[in-house]
Amino acid sequence: MLDLNSNNVWTVTAHEIAERWEVDKAEEDFRNSEDKLLNTIRLCFEVVHYNPDDQRDVAKYESGEWATFSHVDVHRGNVAIRKKDIKRITDLSYENIQHISAALLLDLIDRNFGGGWDAIQLSVKDIIESGFDISTTTLPTSRLHTPGGTYERKVNAGYEVLEVAKGNWTEAIFAKKKDPVAKVKFQNDSHYDEDGNLIVDDVDGRYEKDNDFDDSDEIADDETFYSSYSAEAGKRSGEDDEDLGGLSLDEGDDED
User: Fold this and answer.
1) Residue 37 Cα distances to 1, 2, 25, 98, angstroms
2) Paired residues of 80 in beta bridges
3) 46, 44, 47, 39: which is closest to 11 by C-alpha?
4) What are phi and psi of 122, to 5 degrees?
């Protein structure tokens, strides 16, 4: 249980958690971790505290629909948990979007009043697009399945598709789960002394202060740049006459 975290909690069942909890609560340091573990469990499960001596609570939570386990301190009662159902598109979160299939996502969109992608709130779209690649196309229904068209290419690329009828037109919503992105840790290898001077590593592996910054070359470069600047230099590199409305610089000065 002490290895449970916000990522792997989605991969276990309520009954697996209950069984593991009852075994691990005998560990000496488990008591201090109970509340932290329950907060992790809440990401994926409904969590209810109940009195095991109350027959109504027992009938409700120990009927098999919930998984139950007890606290280290028996005076805190018992805990009942069950997986949160994702029944509506508004049930989606940045956490659970990573753990549902494209098929389930499109089913939720289909049940959202049948309005298609544009009917979804912007905040919910942001959540969906954090876990899925989404694209849409709206075409006359007779042209949607044209061989070699967008529909066929997307399906061949592994996208699930939802068709939303809109009169004689059909909106196709394509969804494909994004690959997990590895987190990159930034490591700053720079070293500074107590006065804030940058210390650079020399060839012998020793550090020396970089106090001899010479900006003469930089100044010279600036002067060279400004002294060589001309009106013709204002024209961007690669910009042809067509970019200037079909007129060259010479033609723009010609009143004829």
Assistant:
1) 8, 8, 11, 20
2) 48, 68
3) 44
4) -60, -40
Q: Which of 105, 99, 90, 92 is nearest to 173 (CA)?
A: 105
pLDDT in tens, 222-248: 444 445 445 554 544 444 444 444 444
Quick: pLDDT tens for 28-54. 889 999 999 999 999 999 999 999 999
> CB-based contacts of 111: which residues, under 8 Å, 6+ apart?
88, 89
Distance CA 16, CA 22 (A): 10
What are the tens digits of pLDDT across the range 134-150?
999 999 999 999 999 99
Residue identified by tokens 């061949």 is: 156
Burial of 177 per CB tally in 10 Å (0-12, 13-18, 19+): middle
Instruction: Kindly report whether the global pTM for this prediction surpasses the value 0.85.
Output: no
Query: What DSSP string runs through 21-84?
Result: HHHHTTSTTSGGGHHHHHHHHTTTEEEEEE-TT-HHHHHHHSSSSSEEEE-SSGGG-EEEEEEP
Query: What pLDDT, on a 0 to 100 scale, did the predictor assign at position 123?
Result: 95
Q: What is the pLDDT of residue 185?
A: 53
Residue 107 is encoded by which pair of tokens?
């089913």
Q: How many residues does the chain have?
A: 256
